[in-house]
Amino acid sequence: MALAAADTYVVVLALTDMMTGVGVGIDSLQKATPIISGFLLGYVAVLPLIGRLADLLDRQRILLGCLAIFVVGSAITAMAPELSVLVVGRVLQGLGGGGLVPATLALVAQLWPPGKRGTPLGVVGAVQEIGSVVGPLLGALILTIWDWRAIFWVNAVAGVLLSVAVRVIGGPVRPTPGTRPRWWRPVAAVTAVAGVAGAVLLTLALTAPSALTSSIRWGGPFVPYGAHTSRMITPIGVWAMIALAIALVLTVPLLWRTFARVDLPGAALIGVALGALILTFATSDPSKQVIGPLGLWLLPVAAVAAGLFVWRQRTVSDPLVAPGVVRRRVTPALACSLFAGTALVSIVVDVPLLAQLTVAHSTERDGALILLRFLVAVPVGALVGGLLLHRFGPGLIAPVGLAVAAVGLLVMSTWGNGSLESLPAWFVLIAVGFGIGLSIAPINDAALHDAAPDQQGVVSALVVVSRMIGMVVGLDLLTALGLHQFYDRVAQIPNATDTQIAAAAVVQVQTIFLGAAFFVFTVATTVRDTMVL
Fold this sequence. Notes:
This protein is an all-alpha fold. Helix content is 76%, strand content 0%. It is built from 18 helices and no strands. It starts with a helix and ends in a 7-residue tail after the last helix.
């Protein structure tokens, strides 16, 4: 989980280098949007499906499978010669990295009984937030020594090492119940051969070794068809895609016994709804619009898919989310997760912006150092929240943590010139980070408390989905609200100077903090009784 969290933030530092590396100029920044939104799409859209699989299969197997997908995505990203391949790699990274979260939380629920999960959930929350702190630092270190591709090679190697560690520490993987038909072994062997062949051919197509491409004898398969320039539209690229397609098709009967127990149409519908929602807001430019350029098409798609998903949930005998799962403490836990995500991302994005506006001669590095006080406090709060959980319960710890964060955000909404340079600002940032961290373990514990053992993966996935929606949608809406205040302030000043525009931008950031404080305080004061165990 620390590895996945680190990879979520590391791209921000390497984004311009990645664009240049795949032939996209930095003057075409809008083309880089899929690099970020593709990761978010993979991270969120399949979470309910992976959560359900974690309830049906050995959870160690799910961890290993998600790590394998993450490693493949990291390797493809590292080798990507063009934007389309880079986006595919990022989607796979998001899919694998996101799947690790519900599998891990469900594993905690499996290994520790109710009332004993506080410390492990606190540790899980802490290491995840530590990953978000270490990620940018590790990325910056790698970029000073190597190039951006090394970041993803490090991810791939780390994923392989973690897979070995999970396999060794976890012991034998529990086999899937039931007997396999006679045809299973030969089909599995052919699938493995096709998969290996596809991986080798894909590697050759993406890397295009000069020893082969410059050879008269072996260079032909690397020559693009027609007027194309893509390395994938070459004979060897097409062979790779054919081999991988064969492996994928043959995988269906091998895994059908497992997937037959999953509501695949329901998973597809909720995946489409979540994916359309994420892309609507993740691709928007809040300075111009609240929703992205395709929002007018994507939002109706999301609404229709969500409606069909609800209808299917009520009509099929074994739906993706069983009836009664989202009940009692699960509902307030999802609300807390939603607004905690909104508060977290608003601070991560807007504190560095406020530093540039209000601190003289401030650089991006200075803003990052100021933000570091908040980021370090989050994992500390997560660990403390887990340690206190068994004594006070989530009904006290989560609302108190969120209330502390809300008060801190309210104070931050008054910050202006010189505020970030004062000692009280240190304590406020630390208090807000500690408060948000304090709520992490109680939120997960309350959600898992009422979940049956065969629904813990789904519930864990819903908590993560709620947090991600809060981060993406909440930030976009708050930013749009802040920009409304910015434009209103500027419109009242004829011939505004740079200083006056900067002051209006400070009002924009203050509005975002004030809005986040309102939402967090509202949920903190309304969930107290419903989260008591």
